[in-house]
Design brief:
The complex is a heterodimer of chains A (220) and B (307). With 220 residues, chain A is of the alpha/beta class. Chain A is 25% helix and 23% strand. In chain A, strand 6 and strand 7 form a beta hairpin. The longest helix of chain A has 14 residues, at 39-52. Chain B has one domain (6-298): TIM Barrel (Alpha-Beta Barrel). Chain B has helices at 6-12, 31-40, 61-70, 86-98, 128-141, 169-182, 195-207, 226-235, 243-250, 257-273, 292-298; strands spanning 17-22, 46-49, 75-80, 103-107, 157-162, 186-191, 215-220, 280-283. In chain B, strand 1, helix 2 and strand 2 form a beta-alpha-beta unit. In chain B, helix 6 (169-182) crosses helix 7 (195-207) and helix 9 (243-250) packs across helix 10 (257-273). Classes of the chains: A alpha/beta (220), B alpha/beta (307).
Chain lengths: 220, 307
């Protein structure tokens, strides 16, 4: 899931300064689940904004997902009535909204932070950098790109502490020590004996993916 | 000969190597390098020029290496993966070689969070093991990583670092093996204080046949004081400082602690000279370059072989 957090209040008020009639659009997808951009958070932000500026007219509207135009039907009717849109989706959703209504300024109310998991209620941890070439099969299900501070493929580096924590933070476990220990437990240490060659990074330009079964459909 | 560097000549002739280290200045003034070089000249076989160590911005290690060359000290050009991508690194290797640099040390680099620009974007496009293989490819196959042919291959003596102490200890010798497989010609270790661990690690390297393929230079840092020993034990990641070191420094008068530190370093060097699988010592006297002549003398490392 995409994890996001609300931008500082002052940054939001600065972005929307001068606009008097705003629609704050929440998202029922990831940002709702991570407690950053669902109905509750939209209402809360609007309450804060109107408390700050009594003249501001700001309405709320939550759609199921801002990353799929199938869910935009109702929003299409509402959007043109406003002079600015605030989006509480992830960066992908904000862009999709902005692309849909190019004549209306669209502002992000959230910072999109990472792709991760729920450790507990309201507690999220990054687990994937969407690098496009998953090595988890060889690294015991522990991502060196995400969890190693240097993202190295032939770890651990020389900075691992004596207690097995990362050089950047004694409270952070060294990803490569964890990889080694778990592979040892599984009897699969041979998976990291060979030198991993330099990675062919693919995330340099915008990535587009069409699943195999749909390639014929979009061939033209 | 792979590179013809002085270090390579000393090692291949079977001498016990003795190398030093210099940090570049935090500014454009090269005077401190020249001053430090004067203490090293003739007392070491070559000296490392560190690359923005602890992620503090300093004069570039290539430029610093060239100043060492001017001063008659062979440089070991340190290159970290933190600050450059594969394009810049290959480019710098060519430039360094063209200007007479013959040793290079491939390192991951201290994380940028430690330095004076903690919000810099860490690069780590390739890691230190991969960097070794890239330079080896350039040298031995005459091609870039991307496959294109070089107009003149950089004949570098390729170095790597090793930390025999960090977790997981059982894996450390295998990481050394990966660096050897990638093409490392010599290895300089982290500062060694835990001699027991070091012996065990060298023993493992001998058993795996690694010491026949790579020259291991044992890292030695003389402790200047009890405070320094405690600081290194508690604050420097990857350091393993056993209590006996601190106790020995505490066991002498405060003003004699530095002398005791040098004594310990000399004892370590004496042991390494007799250790099968250790080909030399890399001396890292932290901001204590002026003591190098004395340490070299007391450790019976002089005169340095001329080959």
């Amino acid at each position: 899931m995409i994890i996001a957090e609300r931008k500082p209040f002052e940054e939001i008020t600065e972005m929307i300064k001068g606009y008097k009639n705003i629609l704050n659009v929440g998202c029922g997808g990831c940002t709702s689940i991570c407690l950053a951009g669902g109905q509750k958070e939209v209402n809360q932000l609007n309450a804060e904004l109107t408390k700050e500026n009594a003249e501001l007219k700001i309405d709320s509207f939550v759609i199921e997902r801002q990353c799929n135009y199938d869910f935009f039907v109702d929003l299409d009717e509402k959007a043109p009535k406003y002079d600015a849109i605030l989006s509480m989706a992830c960066g992908a959703g904000v862009q999709f909204v902005a692309e849909r209504y190019t004549s209306i300024p669209v502002f992000p109310a959230l910072n999109t932070v990472f792709c991760g998991v729920d450790r507990n209620v309201g507690w999220f941890e990054e687990n994937c950098r969407t690098c496009g070439e998953c090595v988890l099969g060889d690294t015991a299900g522990i991502c060196p790109v995400t969890r190693c501070a240097k993202g190295i493929f032939n770890g651990p580096c020389g900075g691992t502490r004596i207690d097995g924590s990362c050089e950047v933070d004694p409270d952070t476990p060294c990803a490569w020590t964890d990889i080694f220990n778990r592979l040892t437990e599984q009897g699969r240490v041979d998976k990291i004996i060979e030198v991993k060659p330099p990675r062919l990074w693919q995330n340099q330009v915008r990535r587009v993916l069409i699943q195999e079964d749909y390639k014929a459909r979009y061939a033209e | 000969m792979k590179s013809g560097s002085n270090l390579e000549k000393v090692l291949t002739a079977g001498h016990f190597a003795f190398t030093g280290e210099v940090g570049p200045p935090r500014g454009a003034n090269t005077e401190s390098i020249r001053t430090k070089a004067a203490f090293l000249k003739g007392n070491v076989d070559m000296a490392n020029m560190t690359d923005n160590q602890t992620a503090m911005v300093r004069m570039s290690s290539m430029a610093g290496s060239l100043v060492l060359l001017e001063e008659g000290v062979e440089p070991n050009y340190q290159m970290v993966c933190r600050d450059r991508n594969r394009i810049a690194m290959q480019s710098d290797i060519l430039g360094a070689y063209a200007h007479g640099i013959r040793n290079v040390l491939c390192l991951s680099g201290d994380h940028q969070q430690f330095g004076d620009h903690p919000n810099a974007k860490g690069v780590f496009d390739i890691d230190s093991v991969q960097l070794i293989s890239v330079i080896k490819k350039m040298r031995d196959e005459g091609t870039f990583l991307g496959g294109d042919t070089l107009d003149g291959a950089p004949e570098m003596f390729i170095g790597a670092a090793a930390n025999p102490f960090g977790q997981p200890f059982e894996w450390r010798v295998h990481r050394l093996a990966k660096k050897v497989a990638a093409g490392a010609d010599f290895v300089q270790t982290q500062c060694i204080f835990n001699m027991e661990r070091m012996r065990e690690w060298v023993h493992q390297a001998n058993d795996m046949g690694l010491t026949e393929k790579v020259y291991i230079l044992a890292g030695v840092t003389p402790m200047k004081s009890v405070g320094m020993a405690k600081y290194m034990k508690n604050n420097v990641p990857g350091m393993d400082v056993p209590d006996w070191i601190i106790k020995r420094l505490q066991g002498v008068e405060k003003k004699k602690a530095a002398d005791e530190g040098i004594k310990i370093a000399c004892e370590q060097i004496a042991e390494f000279k007799e250790t099968k699988g250790v080909a030399g010592v890399h001396l890292m006297p932290i901001e204590w370059e002026h003591k190098v002549p004395e340490i070299a003398e007391r450790a019976n490392m002089l005169p340095r072989p001329v080959v």
